[in-house]
Amino acid sequence: MSHVEFIAPTKPEQAAAALLAGGAHARPLSGGTDLLVQLRSGRLPPGLIVDLKRIPEAIGIRQEGGGFVIGAATPGAALSEHRALGLAWPGVVEAANLIGSTQVQGRASMAGNLCNASPAADSVPALVAARATCVIVGPGGRRTAPVGSIAIGPGRTSLAPGEFVLEIHLPPRPARSGDAYLRLIPRTEMDIAVVGAGVNLTLDGDGVVTEAHVALGAVAPTVLLVADAGAALIGTKADEAALAALDAAARAACNPISDKRGTIEYRTKIAGVLARRAATIAYGRAEKRA
Amino acid sequence: MSDVLERPAAAPLDDGQLKVVGTRPVRPDGAEKVTGKAMYGADLALPGQLVGKIKRSPHPHARIVSIDTRRARALPGVKAVVTAADFPDLASEEYEAGESASNLRDLSLNVMARDKALYDGHAVAAVAATSSAIADEALELITVEYEVLPHVTDVEASMASDAPVLHAHLFTQGLAEKPSAPSNIAKRNEIKRGDLEAGFAEADVVVEGRYTTAAVHQGYIEPHACVASFGADGQCQVWSSSQGQFMIRTYCAKILALESSDIRVTPAEIGGGFGGKTTVYLEPVALALSRQCGHPVKMVMTRDEVFRATGPTSGAVVEVKLGAKSDGTLIAADVVLKYQAGAFPGSPVGAGSMTALACYDIPNFSIVGYDVVTNTPKVAAYRAPGAPISAFGVESAVDDMALKLGMDPIALREKNAVRDGVKASYGPTYRNIGYVETLEAIKTHPHYAAPLGPNQGRGVAVGFWFNVGGESTAAVNLNEDGTAVVISGNPDIGGSRASMAMMAAEVLGLPVEKVRPIVADTASIGFSMLTGGSRTTFATGMAVTQAAQKVVEDLKRRAAMLMDVAVDEVEFVNGAAVCRDPAKASLTVAELAAKAAQTGGPIGAQVSLNAQGAGPGFGVHVCDVEVDPETGHVTVLRYTAAQDVGKAIHPSYVEGQVQGGVAQGVGWALNEEYIFDRSGRMENPGFLDYRVPVASDLPMIDAVLVEVANPRHPFGAKGVGEVPIVPPLAAVANAVRGAIGRRLTDLPLSPPKIRAAIDAG
Amino acid sequence: MSKRQHISAVVNGDPVDFLTDPGATLLDALRDDLGLTGSKEGCGSGDCGACSVILDGRLVCSCLVLAVEAEGRRVETIEGMADGSKLHPLQQKFLEHAALQCGFCTPGLLVAAKALLDVNPDPTESEARYWLAGNLCRCTGYDKVIRAVMDAAAELRQVRV
Predict the structure, then answer these.
(1) By the CB < 8 Å criterion, does B48 face chain C?
(2) CATH class of C5-80
């Protein structure tokens, strides 16, 4: 990795200015678990690396306005150690914690997972289902955007030159809400998701689903928020019929490719299976969370 | 290999009297390895050393039209650039130095392509520079003009008459008539017995199957690495991580047209090999670079290079037809094996053929094997080379036969088991084998009777490996304080220093802590074949034992001199020379060592031998799996592996061999595979998508050691390292069959394939 | 060529200074600049764990950390695990259980296992297996590795009591 330049600014605006000045080959570094691999393999040309970890807002988890703010460079391991976050958003935390090994968890961030723009990113379906937003800093200042709007294709983002994600915001959580994320991998650890499914739902006092969001990973060029799948749950108690409708809606939304990790046919079937199973877990969590 | 045993093997010592052999001491090299001090191939740094790197072909099959290295040579910091033009153009010659015979011309062409690149990753040029970054830049500045040729990576596609031909000089050997056209089928071999047609005519039940396996890599965690230094006087030094320093010396000498005495090879610690480090890739290149510039050159492969350019084992097709009488007697077997060799001939199809039916006593059989070249990396030995592939086919078919006959799978194997006195399918007559005892160990194991839950299945499979002996040298030197040093020429890949020290300690009557084993360089000990084929504890152990016995004889002679009695009045008991005359005080090893100067000088002995009589090994495995019927995901719930090991010198490391072999076999069965894209490039050259088992993928692996002594070894040992990888492929597949009620025949048994099989009903 | 940067860090409790290319990894710096070759490179992509170190208290793959990121940080490697010539209980248990064969993955496994026991003194077998899933071992089948970790955990709990 020759011809790499490195800076570690302490203010978001400095980072944005540096990224803009660094041109097309400038990259923000949060966890680095994708970036360093891509640089080493030659998939990314060397350029300026802007480390975000010395920017105070980019590190740590804060409770604000009833929701959570997660700094862009916060490693997965920190998410699993945060008790309140785990109680409110167990699906988001388990999705982030599925990325790579314990070692990778010591570094990898959800913002990095998001901006790497892999269709198979584990944390993204959970974040999309959670209706998370992110704060983007750029040369023109700050803006907020839904998490689902960041990736626009494999490896491509909607971020303008000089822009980077500084924070991820999880909204306030109503009572009787639950979320869950499941993925299918050939081994038990260390693999890229063949399919991922995140479900986030809220119940009323009778256990009827009032709100539901279902997002699928690795079945399309970007993570899919499947409105029909969410709709299949609303007004039900996630019973067999609702789950069957959810399964069908999830499969209908799939537009995957066949590659070394899975076939179109398999990915489509598994999307339905995992959406159903994740919904059952999320429902169970929502029931327990008064 | 000659069939001469230089010295008769000693009779096995009485088991009841062993004090060291069979115990579990801490290994002598352990502290270095748990503190990070042990020096592996990439850990050495020499003053003035350069970084060497290789430029590799991006095409699986291409004629090399020209290579222009001028711009690379002109880059400041670049000290040497080599291509095939810097290596002698060797004649075709078979040479035995690795785990099997190699053709020296092919070996040289694999190290550096000359006229054609034959696989994605084939070396075409190399540079040495003052830094890694400059070496990378220099590789970019080398221009290679290729004429891209049609390629073929699949074994059966390569056998087709219209396949692109890799080698115009390659004509199929082993045919009745010499073929008129070149072919990718390098060789056809055949083993036959009885009358196949008559056998099948007599059969009441016939099963048939076609089984396929993907190419898989040994997957050692340490990438290949070496440092080489070519002296101004032509004297070379090489430090490298390999399974045999003498193998490195021989191959470097042949490839560079040097004398063996010009090259001294020092073995680094080796970070796993499993057969994959039984040949050369980097060492001759590093020497050629060093020769050009006079600096030491260090070369370390990336993981990508390891996958693309070093030996996997064959992807293969196995066809099996079995015939049995209704009582379960196997009466006929027809086996066809098609093994991928990679870019040059030399797949392990020969061993695959010889082992295919080695567990069975069948009167009529035919085994035909094809060695097929493909535009994929040249295969290298991988743990029991060839045997897991043929066993996958045969053991799957035997499982189907048991089902069809309604017989217990172990009972069917027991009924047809080879025993002492039976002529093996590959020729010799079995003696002192422990196969039936091993079957019994599984049959009576609680695992075999444990209940299974829903979506769970149990699979049984057996496996065989010859085990080998061969040439080894070892020396035992007594120190002046009565401690000892054991010197051998075999890299310690899985605890062999411990077993060498233990065997010497046993003979010398010393505590094992007083015996230090070392692995010496090629100038410091006599020739030893490499560590492989499960030969080291057997053959080198025999040399160590005999050297220690010579020391003991010498000690008795010296004691007799000091006691002033005849030699035959002196016995050696528990580390002391004892005179039959109780009036004479006995002399300990330490006392005798202290008086060495008085009795003739330093005490030590070296033994070189060509060990024969390695007892073959048999393993019987039972595996439980659970299949998620909706996703096709397989979980290995429980695994028990029984094996006849002769005598376990250090039982913990023997168990470790069994457990490690099982893990590799489970990986082969479930997830590991080379995936090539349509352009013939490997799609998964990394540990992310080449999926070896991780800790959470496996249960504890119960290793059951069966000890049926090998009388040709002083302590009864048989080789143990190879056998355990032979049964798991079929054991897992048979368990999956039990769980889902359908037979899968194409490895790996990945979730999509299993779900598709379930859906197919 | 990018200009080399001067980095000050604390490695195994000792202050260290080195010059590094901004593109070099922490593993490169440990091995090539500081002579700490106990951390191994098995893949360079964070998939094998042989380069595991503890960075400011967190287990990481040093091949996925830039050396320049170590400025002002604390790094613990296998070389700092033993207390002088006294082995850490994990190291001792690895020897007693024969939890290593070739030994190449061993430093990374030991560092990762230590990180586990630092946060979870009483792991279940399953927790230990999942925690160590990022440390590939091709020799042992993990059986004796897991036994050694569980045994060391038990011993360390005794010591704490």
Answers:
(1) no
(2) alpha beta
